[in-house]
């Protein structure tokens, strides 16, 4: 496995800031991923050398302020994977946050501490970030609800970047209603009751899932197909799906190096082997490779705009398998990372909102079923999740 064997509750820094006395989120507690700034505290980004070489934040990230103003109280900063550059939930320096439904398995990352704290009922909800799946993967693995919003729909000031054209602030909760309430606060809008026009089932993506999840996913699909909504099966291969992950990897790598290459070269931070290899790759991506990837990404954005229309929703699995054991080898972790990100990079590349909802696999475990909507239709997804939980608890 990885070099890390230490387990943690997912909270890296106890920070208490009380929210407003009244508001839509009054009485709730939350943690914020330690890539989001809190005034007077140094953001670690999950790496001790980052912590040592940066100063305390001069302001609190606007997304945290919105939550505090709505009445929720911050009780801590949650542990991320280093520089938010992983979807495993393993931090070489600080440990592996405990998965609330699979204690012997990884929680998923990079918003690992946030998902751990929510799934283990240490807080009511949590803020994370999602670049290539960092909220959706731990939501699926830990059995909770997770939301990645439309890219560019919320302020990103006071957030440590990874790849700005993909970076978003996401959130996690144990109920769809709370997830929706948080969305109304962060997006500063309410659901206007616009109905979903159709549900498109990504047949080829469901065929990619492990046999252990197929029965649960089929039950979820059967429930959708038995509803009054128009349902149509589609396949993404015609869009060039096989090239999605490589396109994302090139773009993320180039942007990550623009953000952090100078600091990495100057500080030479101590990072886990898998993170080091990823950063080394980032340093090799050329401007021409990036430009070519951007061109293909624009094709993806256009294709999804046509596919979804105004109020269409794409249904797909959030992850392809149950989370790996904490004792899994680096090779097993890498294989799982590629398999998982082949799914999660879809919404990232298309800049779309995606919600992951837990569906029952066994009496004690769940997996994530996801829905994507057109850009800006975040509240449509959040309202749909509430309806799904009421109809198919």
Shape descriptor reads globular
Indicate the mean pLDDT: 95
List unreliable stretches of 5+ residues.
none
Structural class: alpha/beta
The CATH architecture term of the largest domain is: Alpha-Beta Complex
Taking strands numbered 1, 2, ... along the chain, how are they ordered across the largest sheet? 2-4-3-6-8-7-12-13-11-9-10
Number of DSSP-assigned strands: 13
**What's the CATH class label of the largest domain?**
Alpha Beta
Radius of gyration: 19 Å
Descriptive tags:
alpha/beta; Amidase signature (AS) enzymes; 2 domains; 12 helices; two-stranded parallel sheet; 393 residues
Tell me what the structure shows.
It is a single chain. It is built from 12 helices and 13 strands. It is of the alpha/beta class. It folds into 2 domains: 7-191, Amidase signature (AS) enzymes, CATH 3.90.1300.10; 198-244 and 286-391, Amidase signature (AS) enzymes (Alpha-Beta Complex). It has an 11-stranded mixed beta sheet, sandwiched between helices. The chain has a two-stranded parallel sheet with strand order 1-5. The protein is globular and about 55 Å long. It starts with 6 loop residues before the first strand and ends with a helix. The relative contact order is 0.15.
């Amino acid at each position: 496995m990885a070099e890390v064997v230490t387990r943690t509750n997912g909270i890296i820094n106890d920070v208490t800031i009380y929210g407003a006395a009244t508001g839509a989120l009054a009485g709730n507690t939350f943690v914020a991923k330690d890539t989001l700034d809190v005034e007077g505290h140094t953001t670690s980004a999950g790496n001790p050398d980052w912590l040592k070489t940066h100063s305390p934040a001069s302001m609190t990230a606007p997304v945290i302020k919105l939550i505090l103003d709505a009445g929720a109280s911050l009780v801590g900063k949650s542990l991320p994977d280093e520089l938010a550059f992983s979807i495993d939930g393993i931090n070489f320096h600080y440990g592996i946050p405990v998965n609330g439904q699979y204690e012997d398995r990884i929680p998923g990352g990079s918003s690992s501490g946030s998902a751990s704290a929510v799934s283990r009922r240490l807080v009511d909800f949590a803020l994370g970030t999602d670049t290539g799946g960092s909220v959706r993967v731990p939501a699926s693995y830990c059995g909770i609800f997770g939301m990645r919003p439309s890219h560019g729909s919320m302020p990103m000031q006071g957030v440590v970047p990874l790849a700005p054209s993909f970076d978003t602030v996401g959130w996690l909760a144990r109920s769809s209603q709370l997830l929706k309430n948080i969305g109304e606060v962060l997006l500063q809008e309410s659901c206007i009751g616009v109905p979903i026009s159709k549900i498109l089932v990504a047949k080829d993506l469901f065929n990619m899932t492990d046999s252990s999840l197929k029965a649960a996913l089929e039950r979820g699909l059967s429930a959708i197909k038995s509803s009054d909504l128009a349902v149509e099966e589609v396949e993404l291969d015609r869009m060039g799906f096989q090239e999605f992950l490589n396109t994302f990897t090139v773009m993320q790598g180039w942007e990550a190096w623009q953000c952090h290459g100078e600091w990495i070269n100057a500080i030479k931070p101590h990072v886990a082997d898998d993170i080091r290899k990823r950063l080394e790759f980032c340093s090799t991506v050329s401007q021409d490779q990036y430009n070519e990837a951007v061109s293909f990404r624009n094709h993806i954005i256009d294709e999804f705009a046509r596919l979804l229309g105004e109020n269409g929703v794409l249904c797909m699995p959030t992850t392809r398998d149950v989370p790996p054991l904490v004792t899994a080898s680096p090779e097993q972790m890498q294989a799982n990372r590629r398999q998982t990100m082949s799914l999660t990079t879809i919404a990232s590349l298309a800049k779309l909102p995606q919600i992951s909802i837990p569906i029952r696999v066994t009496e004690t475990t769940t997996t994530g079923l996801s829905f994507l909507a057109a850009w800006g239709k975040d509240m449509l997804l959040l309202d749909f999740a509430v309806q799904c939980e009421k109809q198919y608890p």
